[in-house]
Amino acid sequence: MKKGKKLYEGKAKIIYATSDKELVIQYFKDDATAFNNQKKSVIEGKGVLNNRISEHILSNLSQIGIQNHLVKRLNMREQVIKLVEIIPIEFIVRNVATGSITKRLGIEDGTVLKEPLIEYCLKDDALGDPLIADEHIYAFEWAKKEEIEKVKKMILRINDFMIGMFRGIGIKLIDFKLEFGRLKINGKDEIILADEISPDTCRLWDSITDKKLDKDRFRKDLGDLIPAYTEVAKRLGILHEQSNVSVVNVTKLSSIKKKTR
Ligand code: 5GP
Fold it and tell me: Residue ranges of the alpha helices (H) in 64-179?
């Protein structure tokens, strides 16, 4: 498959065309941004880890019937994905209140929610991804009611699966962001999971110590982001136990693992 021209560059990823018009290449950058792009940095190796972690989670989700855009990982930083029309909504799923909801509604940080809470944000950097109600989605035709109903069902299954997967490796899934896209499968309009699922898009706390193993290490200047993401990858069984936290070793291990497949 030939990599073509750049179609889109986001904050953490680049999308390239391929020789197949239904497929694109998703490249994971090392760029880290927060607070609507006001805080920026480059964290060497982050893209490599997110590529591996997202591949692992999305391929597990397809095994339980959650259709998603992942076709295959190509190399350390790239994966082939299906080209979809992204629904311009960020779906936020919360199991424990932290982050923006605590400030917005005055909820105590760490409050365990009785049921998962789904929030909708308009995907618009210029507006700071504002929180919206489902009425806005229908009023401005960002998605149809049937599509949102379908997405909500998928979200609850994804959440149940991911809570269990992370609990099994001593991690609490606090909250996360999902994106979905439209495409035609056998002539039928379908909605599938898109984007990425990684410590960049989830809040992950160690089950015992509540240590943050996600992008909050960057947002809150806690440092040691790469060791935290590496810890998540190791616990998921993607990286071997003996691997060092250094990016060089992460890089070497990914190529060794690829060769032995
Ligand atoms: P909050 O609304 O508390 O800032 O974020 C809730 C969850 O959604 C967190 O896990 C956060 O990482 C994720 N999230 C929300 N918006 C974005 C975004 O624009 N980019 C990324 N990478 N994650 C987001």
Answer: 100-105, 134-139, 145-167
**Ligand 1 nearest-atom number relative to CA 176:** 10
Q: What is the Å distance from ligand 1's center to 152 Cα?
A: 18
* Residue matched to tokens 């599938």: 192
6-84+225-241 belongs to which CATH class?
A: alpha beta
Give the mean model confidence (pLDDT) for residues 193-209: 98
Ligand 1 probe mutation, 174, 179, 200, 201, most atoms within 8 A of CB: 201
The candidate with the shortest Cα–Cα distance to 176, out of 95, 119, 232, 93, is: 93
Q: Looking at the chain, how many residues does it have? A: 261
SS3 119: strand
Bridge partners, residue 110, by sequence: none
232 C-alpha vs ligand 1 centroid, how far in Å? 18
Residue pLDDT, tens place only, 42-81: 999 999 999 999 999 999 999 999 999 999 999 999 999 9
CA of 202 to the centre of ligand 1 (A): 7
Residue 86 identity: I
Q: With beta carbons less than 8 A apart as the criterion, state whether 42 and 31 touch.
A: yes
CATH, domain 85-206, list 2.40.50.140, 3.30.470.20, 2.70.50.60, 2.60.120.230: 3.30.470.20
pLDDT classification of 185: cutoffs 50, 70, 90:
confident
Residue-range domain boundaries for the chain: 6-84+225-241, 85-206
Given a contact cutoff of 8 angstroms between Cβ atoms, the answer to whether 197 and 178 are in contact is yes
